[in-house]
Amino acid sequence: MPEKKVIQLEDRIPRLRAQRKQKANRRMIFYLTILFILILAVIYFESPLSNVRTLMIKDNDYVSKQQIVEQSGILKHNKIWDINKQKIERSLKELPLIKGAEIKRYFPSTVTIDVSEYTKVAYLEKNHRYYPILSSGNILTDVSGKMLPSSAPVIIGVAQGRSLKALTKQMVLLSPAIKHDISEIVSVPSKYYSDEVHLYMNDGNEVIVTTGHLANRLNHFYPSVTSSLKPGEKGVLDLTVGQIFTPYSQSKKD
Q1: Can you say whether residue 41 is alpha, beta or left, with left for phi > 0 and alpha for psi between -120 and 50 degrees?
Q2: Most C-beta atoms within 10 A of its C-beta, which of 25, 35, 151, 211?
Q3: Mean pLDDT over residues 210-232, rounded?
Q4: Domains in the chain, ordered, with CATH?
């Protein structure tokens, strides 16, 4: 049998000492690294390095950047990590045009405010002035103009309150193409339908429909009816019951 190699104790001691020294060095490096990180963190949080330096506003079309910044209350000397995101988001939603907001923080000193706005679906004509109506159904009474708007339909004669909110809800459901083709919406109550409205289209046609069925019937019937008309033919499309198109030329003869 081969002889076993015997390592004397005096030969093992230097190796054990070297291993212990390496472990001690690694432990010291680890603790020093943690200490260094903690010192850097204290310096960052307590110094102007953690102050808000860049404030970015995104997706605002109607509300100005200045108005959003003022409403948020965020200042350049604020600490980025002291910002109460939920409180600021609630505060921004108090603006009539703001539907929602999201606050994001980015190291080392950047804050972004992503907003979503209510859209302007129409204008309410009142005393020869035009007031924007939001998709929420609210009217911006502090914003008006005398010029006839071209960016959205004008609503005439619809009572404010439940009737206007119902009409606004239908406007939101309209396809963008049809919505942009509407010039005016006039309330014309009949003995059959108290919520009857007449829509005057930019293409020269007129549509008669009830408020409760406005979006569904226009989206479903208007494109198919108008696409089947003869070139240059215009008239009245009655969608209160079914779909009845009467050319202007025929109605004048009658």
Answers
A1: alpha
A2: 211
A3: 95
A4: 50-117 (3.10.20.310), 120-253 (3.40.50.10960)
